[in-house]
Amino acid sequence: MTKSVAPQLSTPAEDPLLWLEDRTSKPALDWVHRQNGLTKERLQGDPSYQARFETALELMTAEDNIAVGYELRGHVYNFWQDKANVLGLWRRTTVASYKTEKPDWQTIIDFDALSQKEGVKWVFSGARRLYPDFDRCLLSLSPDGGDASEMREFDIETDSFVEGGFRAPVSKSNFSWLDINTVIVAAAFEEEERTQSGYPRVVKLWKRGTDLSEAVPIFEGQVEDLAVGGSLEFDGDAQYLLLTRTIDFYSGHHFVRLASGEKRRLPLPDDVADIAILKGQIVFAVRSVWSAPGGVACLPDGLYAFDFKRWLETGELGAIETVLPPAERVSIAHVASTRDRLFISLMDNVRGRVVFAERGEGGWSLTPLALPENGNVGISHINQFGSSVSFSFTDFLTPSSIIWSDDDGETLATVKAQPARFDASELISEQFEARSRDGTLVPYFVVRRRDQQKPVPALLYGYGGFEVPLLPGYAGVRGKLWLEKGYAYVQANIRGGGEFGPRWHQAALKDKRQNAFDDFAAVAEDLVRRGISTPAMLGIQGGSNGGLLTGVSLTQRPELFGAVLIEVPLLDMLRYTELPPGASWMAEYGDPSKPEEAAWLATYSPYQHVADDADYPPVLLTTSTADDRVHPGHARKMAARLQAAGHANALFFEETEGGHGGRGDRRIQAAQTAMKYIFLEQALSGGTT
Question: Name one Pfam family in it (predicted).
Fold first, then answer.
């Protein structure tokens, strides 16, 4: 192990690299362009780059990729990108046509044509449809792939923007319909309308024919909150205007706006989750034990319900009923309903299954659906206004498929199946457990050759935060560019994620964050113990919170790894709240402005722990100028600090568009993917490939 080095805890005034936080300043961008040039020379200059780029692009834009869609009023809607449609098509077809091998698609919006016409590379960010005909929508368009979007009203039947219709400038505001002449606006246009995280603080009603500035406020949150929101929710033909004050990622208050204008708070705890309304019942989950009125104990990983109509009429909560009792190592992934039936997607020891719930005179009953087992099965789409629902199935070696039902899951049929993208005949997927530092058993998956006899280069991926689970999934690019070479892929289900429900997440929350890092290191050590790989041949990868994970792994346990990929990361944890929207994550990490919380953040913040004399493996940091979710300053400063400390093997690459998730042009995504696999192979297999 490298020797322990005390952290270099610079205050903002002492940080010589603060200038790199200026997203678009000339000095910062000049530095970015120089770094990009060096990284491209190293990675795109590799003789294998062009072939890898073409392979990645071909798989990302293949015409036989599954067109995942959702159904409304007899049409299936889909967003599609391929080589000819770089920015994509929003399109639709009939349900009958969708089920055929070659559906007859009708283009609603051609985003390449729109972008060429308007001179802006518009990225589709979603559409809110108008009930009950769904022929109008509030269309969101991002100018750079970031989270901030422009909104315009669009008529699907005429394939045109509505002249003089609703339109709002680029912001992080949200929009939904109240009726044809009224839009619910969660506003974040002006400073006074935003929370400290930069998200909406005020909900307004905006009438057709009036200026946006004339929209009437109906609900407000606090500046310290994460955000507020408003939406029209449906239960059959009944409609309810729900207003939400999201205090932080894991707590909030939910209100129903009555016809009188009264905002009545739902009688639920702050940490309620997975709310659904069905047949007069509100179904919900909780993140911690809640002793409901009447003495019923609601437990995490269970699902519960109460009589919503009765509560609206009388103000009395009434009896709490159990919909789904909690079970060991089983957690709720998703809850949604058609018009008549509630579907619950579950994770059972990191494998998926789906049940539906119905309420009768004897209470709630659960029925499992006859879906494939031992893989990742979940809800792909659900029509809350009808009876159609579809499910996805995949695992590491099985291409994705779509299983469709038009009758609430009674009849199931596979309607789409992606062709195999790599030769999996000699591969095996296995699940193991590693024992973490505190004794906790941490599951992980390994995909490798069935006949592996000696250690091979392996890529270990992790996330471990925000209740997000990592589930088995097929990835053609990974299979083609990594697994087919005889290398191994490993996916770690460390604490902080949502694989085993709220308690698994809370075990790595705030001052317990080190548990997630220890879990990841334990998996790495277990891989070596089992002879699957060696430290010199083991690469790690993670993005966003996973970028924090790999950044900490670099600075805490560099001897365990041969290459480190740090993507769109958080890395300066003593300053992350100063880089918008970092303040929104304090419920996850803590508040560095509070001395006691800054103390635990300081124990692991990677930026402050870069050491001059550490023996770090090769590092590649990536980010995007347009990332308005995790500021590019984190990756910029970390790369600059590593290089200034003499670590010449630290590479940096920043794309100018695509936002946090790399949306938009698939050619850009393919280029980065090819560079990352070249970086890994150069580092883990002994040189240029």
Answer: Peptidase_S9_N
